[in-house]
């Protein structure tokens, strides 16, 4: 069972190392896992990842690799050298790319987990149809998740709204990382399929990515603690 503090991933969606380190400092021991995405990585590069790992934090490198298998495999190997704990690839990259990513992770850093993005949480069914994917959104998520797991990935990125279907179709032996998590009453921002921490855990998510409700709060540590308590309570209910 994963500890609640390790299920919470705080998104460092900021433009500088100074801003990121200010958030990390304000959270103290309330957060141990941080997401470095495209914004911060583009601004600061691998240095910020090394700094976070060097300070004892876990890093979720969310760059959503989507390229030819050789290129993705090479990128994953470099992430492994950085000490990344979790990273994203796109499930739509296909089985060869997914296998290349999973194999590179095992070779470079066996502790690093590769999770495949299914359908972005900013997309709804209309947006999915707009890019040429017909049919049901939930079906698309399950299909890509099945492909990723069969290809050796450790899990997927999915809205909790599809997590329940993933567990029903594919079982429990993989990670479900859920972005777009918003405490009750928080602004949704650009998330089309947001859920609360309690809903995410109840649906079967293993990791919750939370950004602005924590990082933009007057007291980030207080907000993080509230979410951790909600995760703990939801986990107890699920365990029965």
Structure explained in plain terms:
The protein is an alpha/beta fold and 240 residues long. It has one domain (4-239): Alpha-Beta Barrel (TIM Barrel), CATH 3.20.20. It has 12 helices and 8 strands. It has helices at 4-7, 17-27, 38-44, 46-54, 69-82, 95-108, 125-130, 137-150, 160-170, 197-203, 212-215, 220-239; strands at 8-11, 33-37, 58-65, 86-90, 113-117, 155-157, 175-178, 207-210. It has an 8-stranded parallel β-barrel, surrounded by 7 helices. Helix 5 (69-82) packs parallel to helix 6, helix 9 runs parallel beside helix 10 and helix 10 packs parallel to helix 12 (220-239). It is globular. The model has no long low-confidence stretch (mean pLDDT 92).
Could you list some keywords that capture this structure?
single chain, 240 residues, alpha/beta, TIM Barrel, eight-stranded parallel beta barrel, 50% helix, 16% strand
Q: What is the CATH class?
A: Alpha Beta
What string gives the helices and strands in order?
A: HEHEHHEHEHEHHEHEHEHH
Task: Tell me what portion of residues adopts beta-strand conformation.
Answer: 15-25%
State the share of residues found in helices, binned by percent: 40-55%
First-residue to last-residue Cα separation: 14 Å
Low-confidence stretches: none
Name the overall outline. Answer: globular
- Count of distinct structural domains: 1
Largest sheet: 8 strands, parallel, barrel
What's the total number of strands?
8
Rg, rounded, reads: 17 Å
The name CATH uses for the topology is TIM Barrel
**CATH architecture descriptor:** Alpha-Beta Barrel
Mean pLDDT across all residues, rounded? 92
